[in-house]
């Protein structure tokens, strides 16, 4: 039943999840170390396929919420999310059958492994975003009718809060305020649901996909091959589309700030190689949201916009973007469940304040003429 995830798989997961995380989800390096330490101390984690979970079982997603930039200065103890899970179980009067990721991105793909290893629970191979998003209601669970509360949020000093709200938008508003007062970062257990609800509302097999993407990048580097080919093969076996090169260039400016519990900003690049003479800009709120090439939109949320180091193809998070970095920016089409009318109301460009329609990145990419402008 299930597959066994050990230290090596976490190494791949941290890379692949950062690719799918579109720059967000928290620093994958710290999350990787936390998960590997937990597995070394407590043993490997069992990863369950969604259909291996009984319909009446309790499944609880766990995660970190807050501004990723703050996380660099507030390294967690490692047991905060586990405490949130235990307090939620006490409130519900029921033990969790399994935990799962809230999103597929960076730190928040590895935190649930910390909880799973230290609790002895299995982890479900699915999540509620298929990427990373900055707000708690931006989950397929919410889109398709699951309540995010009751939710528990815990900080590194032991402070914790139980949150119950009338809807998931208010959950985000209240929990964000609590997180800000906890210093910008909190650790949560939320969206408690049945196995049946999980199967119907989650994006399946994203943990396996992240591991396969990470493995493809590592093996391609070892063999001096093009990592995009391996990534393409991994994505071809999923509900995602093939990776599309949007731009190759050098970062010439990063405007980044922490505002209201989010890391917001813009990164600007000048072209290299076949993109010499062109410019590129990406706006982000924890995650990359909109990409412009020569002031024309070439990708929008919810499709994935991810920066990779031009030499190593290691993914770069929004808090890791630096002046002078040479990068390649790729777009990845998201699964159909994330492109429905209901889903786009929750996380389409208009929700983030952009007066733009959602146009699939594979359609926008057809208009990208890579070369000197």
Automatic annotation (TrEMBL):
<dbReference type="Pfam" id="PF20906">
    <property type="entry name" value="S-Me-THD_C"/>
</dbReference>
<feature type="domain" description="S-Me-THD N-terminal">
    <location>
        <begin position="9"/>
        <end position="164"/>
    </location>
</feature>
<dbReference type="InterPro" id="IPR010318">
    <property type="entry name" value="S-Me-THD_N"/>
</dbReference>
<dbReference type="InterPro" id="IPR048350">
    <property type="entry name" value="S-Me-THD-like_C"/>
</dbReference>
<dbReference type="Pfam" id="PF06032">
    <property type="entry name" value="S-Me-THD_N"/>
</dbReference>
<dbReference type="InterPro" id="IPR024071">
    <property type="entry name" value="S-Me-THD_C_sf"/>
</dbReference>
<dbReference type="InterPro" id="IPR027479">
    <property type="entry name" value="S-Me-THD_N_sf"/>
</dbReference>
<protein>
    <submittedName>
        <fullName>DUF917 family protein</fullName>
    </submittedName>
</protein>
<feature type="domain" description="S-Me-THD-like C-terminal">
    <location>
        <begin position="167"/>
        <end position="361"/>
    </location>
</feature>
């Amino acid at each position: 039943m299930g597959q066994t995830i050990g230290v090596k798989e976490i190494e791949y997961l941290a890379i692949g999840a950062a690719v799918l995380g579109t720059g967000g989800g928290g620093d994958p390096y710290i999350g990787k170390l936390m998960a590997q330490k937990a597995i070394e101390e407590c043993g490997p984690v069992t990863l369950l396929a969604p259909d291996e979970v009984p319909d009446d079982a309790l499944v609880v997603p766990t995660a970190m919420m807050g501004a990723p930039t703050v996380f660099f200065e507030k390294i967690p103890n490692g047991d905060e999310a586990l405490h949130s899970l235990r307090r939620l179980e006490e409130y519900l009067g029921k033990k969790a059958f399994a935990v799962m990721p809230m999103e597929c991105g960076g730190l928040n793909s590895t935190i649930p492994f910390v909880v799973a290893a230290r609790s002895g629970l299995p982890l479900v191979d699915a999540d509620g975003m298929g990427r990373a998003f900055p707000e708690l209601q931006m989950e397929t669970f919410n889109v398709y009718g699951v309540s995010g509360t009751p939710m528990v949020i815990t900080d590194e000093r032991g402070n914790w809060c139980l949150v119950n709200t009338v809807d998931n938008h208010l959950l985000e508003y209240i929990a964000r305020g609590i997180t800000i007062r906890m210093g910008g970062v909190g650790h949560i257990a939320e969206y408690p649901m049945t196995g049946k609800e999980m199967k119907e509302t989650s994006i399946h097999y994203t943990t396996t996909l992240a591991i396969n993407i990470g493995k493809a990048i590592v093996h391609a580097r070892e063999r001096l091959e093009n990592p995009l080919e391996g990534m393409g093969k991994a994505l071809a076996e999923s509900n995602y589309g093939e990776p599309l090169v949007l731009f190759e260039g050098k970062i010439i400016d990063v405007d980044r700030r922490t505002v209201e519990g989010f890391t917001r900003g813009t990164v600007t690049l000048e072209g290299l190689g076949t993109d010499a003479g062109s410019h590129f800009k990406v706006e982000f709120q924890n995650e990359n949201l909109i990409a412009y090439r020569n002031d024309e939109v070439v990708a929008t949320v919810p499709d994935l916009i991810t920066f990779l180091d031009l030499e190593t193809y290691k993914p770069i998070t929004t808090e890791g973007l630096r002046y002078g970095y040479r990068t390649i920016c790729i777009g990845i089409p998201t699964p159909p469940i994330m492109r429905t009318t209901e889903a786009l109301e929750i996380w389409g460009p208009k929700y983030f304040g952009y007066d733009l329609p959602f146009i699939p990145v594979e359609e926008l990419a057809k208009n990208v003429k890579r070369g000197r402008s």
